[in-house]
Amino acid sequence: MPLDWSTIKYFKRDEFDSPDLPGSGDNMNEDFIKKLDEARREAGIPFIINSGFRTTQHNNKVGGEKNSSHLMGLACDIKVKNNRDRRIIINALIRVGLNKRIGIGSTFIHVDADYHKPDSFWLYNSQTGKALSFIKNILGGRNKKTDKKEISC
Known about the structure:
Radius of gyration: 15 Å
Largest sheet: 7 strands, mixed
Structural class: alpha+beta
Shape: globular
Order of helices and strands: HEHEHEEEEE
Strand order of the largest sheet: 1-2-4-3-5-6-7
Distance between the termini: 27 Å
Low-confidence stretches: 134-153
Number of strands: 7
Mean pLDDT: 85
């Protein structure tokens, strides 16, 4: 059953549509959207969604991973204009519990709640747009660096 978007205060379904499939925002995970809505309230600043649900075709077009969380409606990319907004958005995501997987780029923040993937924070390479991944043990507060293989999310 699709999410009842009338219960969501700060977002509309079409903000999460894959560009090649109108109405596909209904494929977003309900718990994820509700937490994102809570984070938006907590932040007190707009969240502009660059990418939400993706069809396989659109994911391939943008160079996303074959197992991208966008394909399951468990991820979105939020546009950021400056460091102040980046800090506010990340803090709000963490406060509401969307702290499983966060990727930080120069113009966006990727957030996902895919429990089939390891907890991770990463930075995107500003030249290539690829992610430099590192694992963060949230409970222990320790970082375990990987081989820094560039990946897409």
